[in-house]
Amino acid sequence: MILSSLGIIRYIDLRCRKKLLPQNSVVAVGIDREKMATIIQGKNIKLSVIEKKLGLSKSRYYRWINYDVDLPFEYTVGLKKLLGLSDNEFLSLILPSTDEVLDTLALAMYFSSFSDKNNKLSIIMNSVKKYRNENQKYPFKFIILYLQAFFEKKEEKNIDIYINKLDKYLESIESITDFDLFLNFAVLQLKQLESGYQIEKNLNVTFINKLLEKMKLDDFSEVIIFHGFIIDIVINLILINKNKMALEVLNKSFDLMINSGYTDEYSKILDNELSQAIQKKDTNFEKLIRIIKQTGTVSEDEILYWSNYQTYIQRANS
């Protein structure tokens, strides 16, 4: 079985609860940020000018360039006018919105981990395969690689070629985006799927640090989602006997949540119980599952996440 991600489960619960595939939007468009940044630099336009002319702050500009947020359409049109781009030049920069890309990858990861009775993965593949011939760093290309790997593995074929391509991209990036964080966990899923019951031992510290930074966000739902990814990392560290590092990551993430003012009762219980399990070197999550169920505030998918790990551990040790 392919292990699920708590971060993805929470993303689906908070952002895609109906589990509907995103549609290409004529309003919520994205822009090829790298090309745009190159054009701005080539025309020697200072960010102070953009801020003055468009009201686009430097901090928001950098978050946009790093694919952390989308911009309202009026800002992108404003940049077009400021840079003197023709209609064709502008249209060549248009990409799907960040939300659309994240929703698509999250749904692909979700349905590969849980039941796919309605063939949603095939539907997702059909919706993204039109991007197969786009440039090498076009985000949908990596979703296609992920899905190809999953389908090939179902036919018991080797998927190293897909994993290597995805790894090569992740190793090449200079600025980690939310999409890259999601994709990193997608690759961890594929590695676990390819190796059977072997957990990936070479976790990228840069990605872990980026996740910890997300605990400082001023959006409660985003903090909860990325805290889920932190839990994924912690579980992985526990299973490769890196308990000290697991405890450090867990404690640091919880401290950051407290400092941001975004701690809820369930997160406190979860972090406390997981912390005790780490200190006792106890990978049996039966007590944790029982306590989680008693809270009555957790989705069925999140409970299933812990149950699946319990089953995984039992099979791995048999």
Walk me through the structure.
The chain is mostly helical. The chain is built from 17 helices and two strands. The chain has helices at residues 6-15, 33-42, 47-54, 58-65, 73-83, 87-91, 98-113, 120-128, 139-154, 160-172, 178-195, 205-213, 220-239, 243-260, 265-279, 286-295, 300-316; strands at 29-31, 94-96. Helix 13 (220-239) runs antiparallel to helix 14 (243-260) and helix 15 (265-279) runs antiparallel to helix 16 (286-295). The relative contact order is 0.11. The longest helix has 20 residues, at 220-239. The protein has a two-stranded antiparallel sheet with strand order 1-2. The chain is globular, with a radius of gyration of 21 Å. The two termini are 15 Å apart.
Brief sketch in words of this structure:
By secondary structure, this protein is an all-alpha fold. It has helices at 6-15, 33-42, 47-54, 58-65, 73-83, 87-91, 98-113, 120-128, 139-154, 160-172, 178-195, 205-213, 220-239, 243-260, 265-279, 286-295, 300-316, and strands at residues 29-31, 94-96.
Present the secondary structure layout:
Elements: H1 6-15, E1 29-31, H2 33-42, H3 47-54, H4 58-65, H5 73-83, H6 87-91, E2 94-96, H7 98-113, H8 120-128, H9 139-154, H10 160-172, H11 178-195, H12 205-213, H13 220-239, H14 243-260, H15 265-279, H16 286-295, H17 300-316
Antiparallel strand pairs: 1-2
Helix pairs in contact: 1-7, 1-13, 7-9, 7-11, 9-10, 9-11, 10-11, 13-14, 14-15, 15-16, 16-17
